[in-house]
Amino acid sequence: MEYRTIKIEHIGGLLVLTLNRPDKMNALNTAMRAEITHLLQHLPEDLRALVITGAGDAFCSGQDLGDARNAHDIDIERVLRDEYMPMLTALMALEIPVLAAVNGAAAGAGANLALACDVVIAAQSAFFSQAFSRIGLMPDLGGSWVMPRKVGMARAMGAALFAERIPAPQAAQWGMIYEAVGDDSFDAHWRGRAAQLAAGPSCAFRAIKQALRASASNDLAAQLDLEAHLQGELGKSRDFLEGISAFLDKRAPNFEGR
């Protein structure tokens, strides 16, 4: 597929996906959703980390409302089932770490696209908004699932009902995102974090994602059993042997992802 609404930067084991409709604040239209989904379903096999960010001043302003100028002609349920759900499912199915580098406004589906990633790093001036109720809708793209789990029911409900901006520092304080970083150092910071993930122990990262996600539905006994199984598998990996050797040799490890 030829990508027209996104840009791809492939650096070793790291791929940076940039939403690239800056004149529309990177709003999600049919073409962009199809391109993101296609890319997520056809990532290089040797990829070790993925970053999603936005071109220009915004991360993603959500659904392109230009598509809904005549609201009666839009089948929202079909769009969600046929276009948004495959995109989110492909994103959540990835075993590699996914970092959202939120450079500006993340509103509506744009906010929930970011929050579906494993780690969210935002510029100090960025903000998040569950803006749906402003146009008579409710959070989608997983927002009604992820927000209560990240910030608790009270804050999730308030964010959805009032549709107010949540500045990046407040989002970090709430536990909605991992960190808010000064605008001047934002680009260098997230690139450093992404490089760290791409050079890290991929097997361990895969197990971390599996275990943490399973914890939402497991009881303690099931989680302890899962930990024992995953840790046992990691103990047989080359990355574990390298990590131990590097620790004993007092040097930086050279993980291979095996």
UniProtKB/TrEMBL annotation:
Alphabetical list of InterPro entries matching this protein: ClpP/crotonase-like_dom_sf, Enoyl-CoA_hyd/isom_CS, Enoyl-CoA_hydra/iso, Enoyl-CoA_hydra_C
Record's keyword annotation contains Membrane: no
Alphabetical list of CDD domains matching this protein: crotonase-like
Alphabetized GO MF terms: isomerase activity
Database matches in SUPFAM superfamilies: ClpP/crotonase
Keywords, alphabetical: Isomerase
Keyword field contains Isomerase: yes
Family affiliation: Belongs to the enoyl-CoA hydratase/isomerase family.
PANTHER family: EG:BACN32G11.4 PROTEIN, ENOYL-COA HYDRATASE
Record protein name field: 2-(1,2-epoxy-1,2-dihydrophenyl)acetyl-CoA isomerase
